[in-house]
Write a structure and sequence with these properties.
heterodimer, A: mainly beta, five-stranded antiparallel beta sheet, B: mainly beta, four-stranded antiparallel beta sheet, 0% helix, 48% strand
Chain lengths: 114, 115
């Protein structure tokens, strides 16, 4: 059973565009939602994360929007750059404050063209 | 280096052989995770070690898969009687209690190809 659904599978935008990646979860016990960025040949790295008590979080050009009632959250990348080309994974966990396992989405391969 | 180290980076084996994959976590990290990354399948949780607690093995796909963590540090993932569907990148991660919740530090993975 896939507990975190992610779309789209791939995305191509022009430089300066605003790609949006969407995720939906089923388990209402999830209470922490990070996004990871992965470059080819590398392991994923934490990009930004949000808790369900806020509806939006911004860090630089990256913004997470969170809709608790719909059990959905999304990543927006403002003024996207070719260096943002990577695979993005949303994730969820339900043991905040301690180390805990993450359930990941299937990933979105983003390509930012010139 | 200060990051998570995995070896080998690439492993090609024949169907039916056993393989061992090694993970050396960041020093001081109490939690260690193994994930499997297959094309189009995202990151599949396999097993999780936290300190001296019993490991969470709920993600292991079959009894051919096992893992151990010695001395609370290095971990070995063993796949017995490998099958072609075991071909994937096996990622190890570690995290620290008291660190950023949900922040796992991943290694670069071990790519396994079963012929």
């Amino acid at each position: 059973q896939q507990q975190v659904k992610q779309s789209p599978q791939s995305l191509i935008v022009q430089k300066g565009g605003i790609p949006i990646i969407n995720c939906a979860y089923e388990n209402t016990a999830f209470d922490y939602f990070p996004w990871y960025q992965q470059f080819p040949g590398k392991g994923p790295a934490l990009l930004i994360a949000i808790r369900p008590d806020v509806s939006e979080k911004k860090e630089g050009r990256f913004t997470i929007s969170f809709n608790k009632s719909a059990k959905q959250f999304s990543l927006h990348i403002m003024d996207s750059q070719p260096g943002d080309s990577a695979t993005y994974f949303c994730a969820a966990s339900h043991n905040t404050g301690t180390a805990s396992k993450l359930t990941f989405g299937t990933g979105t391969r983003l390509q930012v063209t010139l | 280096g200060a990051g998570v180290s995995q070896s080998p980076s690439n492993k090609v084996t024949e169907k039916g052989k056993d393989v061992e994959l090694r993970c050396d976590p960041i020093s001081g990290h109490t939690a260690l995770y193994w994930y499997r990354q297959s094309l189009g399948q995202g990151l599949e949780f396999l097993i999780y070690f936290q300190g001296n607690s019993a490991p969470d093995k709920s993600g292991l796909p079959s009894d051919r898969f096992s893992a151990e963590r010695t001395g609370g540090s290095v971990s070995t993932l063993t796949i017995q009687r490998t099958q072609q569907e075991d071909s994937a990148v096996y990622l190890c991660a570690s995290s620290a209690n008291g660190g950023t919740p949900g922040e796992l530090f991943f290694g670069e993975g071990s790519r396994l190809t079963v012929l």
